[in-house]
Amino acid sequence: MRGYLVAIFLSAVFLYYVLHCILWGANVYWVPPVEMKRRNKIQTCLSKPAFASLLRFQQFHPFLCAADFKKVASFYDNDKFDLPYGTRTSAEYFRLALSKLQSCDLFDEFDNVPCKKCVVVGNGGVLKNKTLGETIDSYDVIIRMNNGPVLGHEEEVGRRTTFRLFYPESVFSDPKHSDPNTTAILTAFKPHDLKWLWELLTGGKINTNGFWKKPGLNLIYKPYQIRILDPYIIRMAAYELLNFPKVFPKSQKPKHPTTGIIAITLAFHICHEVHLAGFKYNFSDLKSPLHYYGNATMSLMSQNAYHNVTAEQLFLKDIIEKNFVINLTQD
Ligand SMILES: *[C@@H]1O[C@H](CO)[C@@H](O)[C@H](O)[C@H]1NC(C)=O
Ligand SMILES: *[C@@H]1O[C@H](CO)[C@@H](O)[C@H](O)[C@H]1NC(C)=O
Ligand SMILES: *[C@@H]1O[C@H](CO)[C@@H](O)[C@H](O)[C@H]1NC(C)=O
Ligand SMILES: *[C@@H]1O[C@H](CO)[C@@H](O)[C@H](O)[C@H]1NC(C)=O
Ligand SMILES: *[C@@H]1O[C@H](CO)[C@@H](O)[C@H](O)[C@H]1NC(C)=O
Ligand SMILES: *[C@@H]1O[C@H](CO)[C@@H](O)[C@H](O)[C@H]1NC(C)=O
Q1: What is the CATH number of the domain that holds 224?
Q2: Cα dihedral 307/309/315/321 (nearest 10)
Q3: 36 Cα to the center of ligand 2, angstroms
Q4: How far is the CA of 182 from the centre of ligand 2 (A)?
Q5: Which among 96, 98, 180, 247 has most CB atoms closer than 10 A?
């Protein structure tokens, strides 16, 4: 009797699965995209990173791929949130931009380091007059952001760049900053950002309306170097790491995590060990340099209504105290 019941139960489960696949037109063999690399042989790091407890998916592919964009979006609930934390209402823009990219791979095919040691280099003025360049260059993976230059600052910040996160208003446009070894990651905050990338890659006219600052009008990166960050990473940074509310009061501008925190969240998903350099704001001196380059001062950051710097500082303090990361700009 029990054998019958088990058999009936199993065939019911099987039938349900088959029907589900037929009804939803899904590929029966499709499995969630949890592997870190799409094409390469799988290099899994067996030991757990210190910050593993913060992650919901231990093996998450951080870049969107044209081929399975829709499936991935629904698997990770990206289709339930609007930009910048999801793809709902902008799926067509994502699809267009992705159609012009040549790869969504994480590391190149010759990469064979299973447990990556990474450094996330913030653009903070704290890097000025420090000589961390050689130390930074010694990591497996070096993540930089926006227009923080390497050129002319090699002693302070090193020469190598594995990943650089950018958005249209922050991207380099001077070809002197090109580096064929860098993978440039678009962090999309609004539909315009994807449209901008698509227009640049198709050689169309760039519509510069809808940006808070003039966007780059040419790309110094070749299509093979460009990726689009999965908005899940930004959502994770906002809701799970910075504990942003799901809805902001009408009187406030909705806050976004800074690129620095997004870069750390990305590092948590692809690295085994994460070190930080250049993450520091000194609000007690509004005239102190904001970045290790240029002339901007802290006063610029304190006026910023789009970020919650308090929440970010609490988060950084917490992950440093818990030894999830190491602060290289420690005196
Ligand atoms: C860096 O060094 C230069 C020259 O020694 C000095 O003028 C400048 O004030 C220093 N900057 C910082 C942020 O310490
Ligand atoms: C890029 O990588 C090649 C091969 O590893 C290396 O020879 C070259 O110096 C690198 N260029 C930069 C700018 O890092
Ligand atoms: C911030 O800047 C002030 C003024 O330059 C300085 O006295 C103070 O030590 C700095 N604070 C930190 C935490 O570096
Ligand atoms: C910063 O200020 C100096 C001196 O005022 C000026 O020569 C330089 O061009 C400025 N740099 C930038 C990036 O604006
Ligand atoms: C910023 O974050 C802190 C800490 O999570 C929170 O107490 C504060 O209300 C937030 N401020 C704004 C303006 O959202
Ligand atoms: C890293 O260490 C430096 C020096 O002690 C400190 O000023 C800075 O605030 C630290 N960074 C963070 C994010 O706590």
Answers
A1: 3.90.1480.20
A2: 160
A3: 24
A4: 10
A5: 98
